[in-house]
Amino acid sequence: MKTYLIFLFATILAASAIKQTFEGYKVYKIIPRTQDEVDVVKDLQKNGIGQLWDDQVHINYEARIMVPPNKIDDFKNEMVRTNIGTEELISDMQRVIDDQLQPVKRNSRTGSSFLDMTWDRYHNLDEIYKWLDDVAASYPNIVKTVVMGRSFENREIKGIVINYKPDRKDKVIGMLEGTLHAREWISPATVTWIVKEFLTSSDPAVRSLAEDIEWHVFPVVNPDGYVYTFTHNRMWRKNRGTRNFTSCASSGVADDLSNGVDLNRNFDFVWMSTGASDNPCSTTFAGLAPASEPETVAIVNYVKNINGQGKFIYYYSFHSFTQLIVVPYSNVTGVDILTAENYGDMFEIAARGAAKLRQRFGTVYRYGVAHDTLYVMSGTSFDWVKLETNVPVSYLIELRDLGEYGFLLPAEQIIPNNLEIMDALVEMDRVTRLMGYYSGSVPVICTLSVVALCAVVSLLM
Ligand SMILES: [Zn+2]
User: Fold this and answer.
1) CA 26 to CA 42: how far, in whole Å?
2) How far is the CA of 111 from the centre of ligand 1 (A)?
3) How far is CA 224 from the centre of its chain?
4) For 62-100, what is each residue's pLDDT tens digit?
5) CA distances from residue 318 to 102, 107, 393, 422 in whole angstroms, order as listed
6) CATH fold group of domain 22-91
7) Domain 113-227+287-460, CATH class in plain words
């Protein structure tokens, strides 16, 4: 009995030791106003005082930093010493994390569940994958499951294909990619909602969007990372590749961070040229070569395959947070934003989508290339897809919020987030059709005039 108790105690201790707790961690907002202040913010991470939520920090950028309880005094002292203002956003991260898994108390709201899926809390990988199977079983003539490949830890990267018209000629194809970054839980919660809408909505505009296109839907393309956010570290971003392990002690961060590659820096799109790191301890580590990761390879092969099967029109990559519709390409600025040949149309479609989205709850999404809305990047999936296939509409969508909760978006915001995103997708589809992309005849005058207008607007942003 005694041996059993010791074993039990040891097991409990081991289990609790591996899961990172964020009890007492606080999240602060800092806006550095000078380069010196940017350096101070970066040093906070370098010196182990806090960890930034942002990949990059520059002047006037609203940075978020999480600070463990034993470093809060150091953090405050440093902010007083350097005279940098801060705002406390989250007083106890663990409490907000725990709340994300509690179902929201709400009055019965129509459309908040479909088969075993609900949108009143966040769901783990097993729940999402089981639901995909259930959806396929319930709609055998329309939906089939598909596995695009396997992750580093050999998990399936599972999705579904929704095809209302299997016999159609001149197929129009769209793809939804969710959870390339593990901790962005609103991403799969959005993608699963879109599936529900495609299968159950009676809105004629949603029906057209669902039925005129063959949809390839992958709610979680980084399954290892997503599982890890439930079992070990809620703030995990990368995949779980271990091939590049080196000690991170000198970076002031946990050694575990040297595992994993940032999948949204790993694609063969101007790889490692800007906004990416060659340091395995960085959250934006791009890997040792383009498409070095099995998850990246799976997406690359899948996209190349569907691109040859019909008219590939939409590629949406769902991330969080900051409320953005990001237009390719993410490495360009100034007049080079016109590198993508239909940049003007993509800008216009995004603008219309954002305007429509705002009408429902007043939520503001900005739009434009990464340089103007976020920061420059390379190795991103949506840019690679645009470059490889010239798909007319390829966006990275950063979902709610603006950083009040960031990755820890409360569950009561899932449905409002999803409703407004659905509005945007429907509107963007309406504009895309009007521009002639379904028929393949893009009106040249419209395209050219929009390019001129959009170039000016974008430069003013
Ligand atoms: Zn992301």
Assistant:
1) 17
2) 27
3) 15
4) 999 999 999 999 999 999 999 999 999 999 999 999 988
5) 23, 28, 14, 13
6) Alpha-Beta Plaits (3.30.70)
7) alpha beta
Q: For residue 341, give both structure tokens.
A: 């040949």
From the CA of 31, how far away is ligand 1's center (Å)? 21
Nearest to 206 by CA among 421, 435, 366, 451: 421
For residue range 137-161, what is the model confidence (pLDDT) as tens digits? 999 999 999 999 999 999 999 999 9
What are the boundaries of each domain within the chain? Answer: 22-91, 113-227+287-460
Tokens of 50: 């806090």
CA 326 to chain centre: 11
Q: Is position 341 annotated as part of the catalytic site?
A: no
Q: Which of 329, 353, 351 is nearest to 340 (CA)?
A: 329
Q: Is the dihedral of CA 73, 74, 75, 79 positive or negative?
A: positive
Do strands 86-90 and 26-30 pair parallel, antiparallel, or not at all (unpaired)?
Answer: antiparallel
H or E stretch at 217: strand 214-218
Cα(27) to ligand 1 centroid in Å equals 19
Of these residues, 398, 404, 420, 427, which one is catalytic?
398
Q: Which residue has the tokens 């913010």?
A: 41
Q: Give buried/exposed letters for 250-285 (b at 16+ CB in 10 A, else e).
A: ebbbeebbbbbbbbbbbbebbbbebbbbeebbbbbb
Q: Which helix (H) or strand (E) holds 397?
A: strand 393-399
Residue range 111-135, pLDDT digits in tens = 589 999 999 999 999 999 999 999 9
* b/e sequence 70-87, b meaning 16+ C-beta within 10 Å: ebbebbeebbeeeebebe
| Centroid of ligand 1 to alpha carbon of 123 (angstroms) | 18
What type of residue is 199?
Answer: L
Nearest to 269 by CA among 382, 367, 183: 382
Radius of gyration (Cα) for the chain, nearest Å? 22
The pair of three-digit structure tokens given for residue 192, joined into one six-digit string? 């699963």
Using CA atoms, how far apart are residues 62 and 89, in angstroms rounded to an integer?
A: 12
CA of 108 to the centre of ligand 1 (A): 32
pLDDT, residue 142, reads 98
Rounded CA separation 97/407 (Å):
10
